[in-house]
Amino acid sequence: MLLLSIETSCDETAAAVVRGGREILSSVVSSQIAIHAEYGGVVPEIASRKHLESITPVIKEALHIAEVGMDAFDGVAVTRGPGLSGALLVGFSAAKSIAAALRIPLIGVHHIEGHIFAGFLEKPVAFPFLALVVSGGHTHLYYVEGFGQYSTLGRTIDDAAGEAYDKSAKIMGMPYPGGAVIDKMAQSGNPDAVKLPRPLLHDGTLNFSFSGLKTAVLQYVMKNPVIIPGKAANDLCASFQNAVCDVLTAKTEAAIRQTGAERLVVAGGVACNSGLRSVMSLLSDKLGVELYIPSPSLCGDNAAMIAVPGDYYLSQGIVSPNTLDVTATWNMDSIKEMF
User: For strand 263-267 and strand 290-292, is the pairing parallel, antiparallel, or unpaired?
Assistant: First the structure.
C-alpha cells in the first residue's frame, strides 16, 4: 500500500510518501528552529501559525519528490497526539480533508509509536522488544509485544531528558536548541570534572527525573560562570551528559533484566546523541542483547515514521472514524481506544 503520512506535533511540519510501511519514496521536513530560537524555546501559537503556512507546500513537495499524484494513495496516516494541540490540529485537519476528498481511509497514529518504529524503515525488529524513547518531551521505557501492544515500564516524572539538555544549554548561555551543542562540547570535556546528581538512580523504579539535574547545573553556573568556548564549559557539558547517560543506562539495564528482553530499540530525537549511542552500544554488548538505533535522520520528528504503524493498521482494516480528533496527551497503554 502507498501512504501519505503527515506529522505536525511540535515545531516540524513534515510529510512523506511511504510504500508498504518500509520504503520511503519521499520525506520532507520543514523545521521552525530558526523562528523559535529567538524565544529560547517553542512558542505554541507561533508553531501553529507556521504549520498553517507550511503544510500545503510541504505535502506538495513530498508528492513531487515521490513522483506520485493524490490519486495514488491507499490511505493517509497522521499524528493524532500527543503534542501541541494547535500544531496537531493543522496536520490532522489536512489529513482528514485529503482522506475525505479522495475517499480513502484515515489512520491516526501515536507520535511515540512512530518513533518506536522509525527504525523499521531501515531494518525491522522481531517482537517482543524493549524500547527506550528519549526526546524533548518524552523519556519512557516500553515493552513492545507488537503493533498496538505496549506496556509502559517507566517514564519521566518531570523534565524529559531532551528538555533538560535544552534548558541546561540555555543556562550555560547557548542558543536554542542546545542539546546538540552540549553533545559536541562534551566530547572535548572531562566527564568527572563536575559532580552532578543522578536523580532516581537507585529508587527501585524504572522512572526518570531530570529536573533536579537541570537545577544542579543552574546552581553550579551561578557559582562558577562558564565561558563558551572554553575548557570549563566543555567539562560541564561532559559531566552533564555523563549524568544523563548514567541514569538512562541504569534504568534500561534494569528493564532488560526485569523483562528478559533480547532486543533493545532506542529512539527519539535524543537518540542522535553520540554519548547515548555509545553507552547503549556498551550496554547491549554487556548484556548480550541486540541493539537497534535509527539513523539520525529518522530519530528526529518526521512523517515517514508515522507510516510504519499506519501501514500495519490499514493492512488489518483498522482505520480511524471521521469523528476522531487530536489529543494533547495519550497513554500508549490505552492506544487501542482510538479504534
Answer: parallel
Whether 141 and 254 have beta carbons less than 8 Å apart is answered as: no
Fold equal for 2-117+298-338 and 126-293: yes
Q: What are phi and psi of 17, to 5 degrees?
A: -120, 120
Domain layout of the chain by residue ranges: 2-117+298-338, 126-293
Write the CB contacts of 294 (distance below 8 Å, at least 6 apart in sequence).
118, 119, 121, 122, 267, 271
CA distance 115 to 108: 14
pLDDT digits (tens, 9 = 90+) for 234-285: 999 999 999 999 999 999 999 999 999 999 999 999 999 999 999 999 999 9
CA distances from 222 to 127, 187, 199, 217, 241 (A): 48, 23, 21, 9, 19
The residues pairing with 106 across neighbouring beta strands, listed in sequence order, are 76
Superfamily for the 126-293 domain: ATPase, nucleotide binding domain (3.30.420.40)
Q: Residue 59 — pLDDT band, cuts 50, 70, 90?
A: very high
- Domain formed by 2-117+298-338, architecture: 2-Layer Sandwich (3.30)
pTM as predicted: 0.94
Pairing of strands 106-110, 129-134: unpaired
First to last CA, the chain: 20
